[in-house]
């Protein structure tokens, strides 16, 4: 927890501390207060719509509960944000097939931390959950992507299926499924090329991979994880929208939450897209991937 809290330091400074300053400076809950609060929320990459919604709900609560002191107001604000993060109690846990193979397809544009996330995830499954993991180098578009993933597979100590650069990603997925079956793997993590130059292109490629996987496993993939970079703020939200339209994304892995002040983007993604954030990256190390737990996150944000 302290590691998570530490990684959110910049976000907390940019967001919670600004709210605290506002609360102490403006003693009255007036129009000016709400305006400034909205600005802080937007500045914290929560997204304009979500910021407006939070302020509106706050107004309503203040009226309903006849709140006139800023301390209570701060508590209500924390509650509202916690509610958004945990909304609907939608599960943020990874969907894992307990008595058979689990296939996880990983999508996202280059540079967001896709390879690193796959490596950390493989480590998490292997070391924390004691699973047998296989990787598939499905990003055949760049030779570097295959090499990078191989470095991670060696580091974690899991096997990897690869073809040559330029090979058909669906063929890699097919071989990987066969290999996972033959080796009795628990989890197969399939990397994909995150080219977004056209949506239909991406859609076709992912569909083909899915079709191949479904030949053997109609219920797979159990997860299609989209990797997003928190440091890109609202850009991450736009990417999520595009990918969400091109693939049935089941969860988001949000990377680089450490060292960014834009951690509010978690709230934005949660509220705008209704796709649950399932994993968060809080550093470059092999252990720096965490399951996303809304309450724990909110607690780290508002200590
Ligand atoms: P890819 O092109 O999407 O596969 O991106 P990479 O996995 O190669 O990562 C790009 C850079 O982001 C690398 O330098 C990683 O170490 C770094 N990175 C990935 N995840 C995190 C994270 O959670 N925190 C930090 N600080 N850096 C990260």
From TrEMBL:
Enzyme class: hydrolase
SMART domains in the record: AAA, SRP54, SRP54_N
Stretches assigned to the SRP54-type proteins GTP-binding domain: 276-289
SUPFAM superfamilies: Domain of the SRP/SRP receptor G-proteins, P-loop containing nucleoside triphosphate hydrolases
GO cellular component: a single term: plasma membrane
Swiss-Prot/TrEMBL keywords: Cell membrane, Cytoplasm, GTP-binding, Hydrolase, Membrane, Nucleotide-binding, Receptor
Chief location bin: membrane
CDD domains cross-referenced by the UniProt entry: FtsY
Gene3D superfamilies, alphabetized: P-loop containing nucleotide triphosphate hydrolases (3.40.50.300), Signal recognition particle SRP54, nucleotide-binding domain (1.20.120.140)
Subcellular localization, as worded in the UniProt entry: Cell membrane; Cytoplasm
Binding annotation for GTP: 108-115, 191-195, 255-258
Pfam families the record matches: SRP54 (PF00448), SRP54_N (PF02881)
Reaction catalysed by this enzyme: GTP + H2O = GDP + phosphate + H(+)
Bilayer topology term: Peripheral membrane protein
EC number(s) given by UniProt: 3.6.5.4
Gene Ontology molecular function, alphabetical: GTP binding; GTPase activity; signal recognition particle binding
InterPro entries given in the database record: AAA+_ATPase, P-loop_NTPase, Signal_recog_particl_SRP54_hlx, SR_rcpt_FtsY, SRP/SRP_N, SRP54_GTPase_dom, SRP54_N_sf
A GO biological process held by the record: SRP-dependent cotranslational protein targeting to membrane
NCBIfam families tied to this protein: ftsY
Stated family: Belongs to the GTP-binding SRP family. FtsY subfamily.
Primary role: Involved in targeting and insertion of nascent membrane proteins into the cytoplasmic membrane. Acts as a receptor for the complex formed by the signal recognition particle (SRP) and the ribosome-nascent chain (RNC).
Subunit structure and binding partners: Part of the signal recognition particle protein translocation system, which is composed of SRP and FtsY.
Name of the protein this chain belongs to: Signal recognition particle receptor FtsY
Species this protein is from: Desulfofarcimen acetoxidans (strain ATCC 49208 / DSM 771 / KCTC 5769 / VKM B-1644 / 5575) (Desulfotomaculum acetoxidans)
Gene that this sequence comes from: ftsY
